[in-house]
Amino acid sequence: MRHLIQLIVAALAVAGAVVTGLAARSVVVVAPIADGQPSTTSAAFDPPLMLLTWLLITAAGVLAVLGVAGLVRARRARAVRTPASDPPAPEPS
Fold first, then answer.
1. Span 53-65, average pLDDT
2. Which of 93, 6, 25, 17 is nearest to 56 (CA)?
3. 3-class DSSP assignment, residue 42
4. Would you list the domain boundaries of the chain?
5. Which of 53, 66, 73, 81 has the most CB atoms around it within 10 Å of its CB?
6. What residues contact 4, with CB distance under 8 A and at least 6 apart?
7. In whole angstroms, what is the distance from residue 66 CA to residue 60 CA?
8. Residue 78 has pLDDT above 90, yes or no
9. Which parts of the chain span the membrane according to its record (predicted)?
């Protein structure tokens, strides 16, 4: 159950990273370099929002690895404990 929660939180962190990543970018108008030239546009990024995006992506990656590794470990532990792999019980004499 803990590993599924880690995967859900990782998915939420990815969603938050997408939202903050989109909010961090804005388009600004750049003045022309020479007279008679048209103005251009450029992308400007908000540093605090970019940092938050990178932290959310990092947390999502760590949680995803921990969640998947835990699920794989749990599945392998269940496979080892199957009744077919248990040694036979001694017969009463």
1. 97
2. 17
3. strand
4. 2-81
5. 53
6. 67, 71
7. 10
8. no
9. 47-72
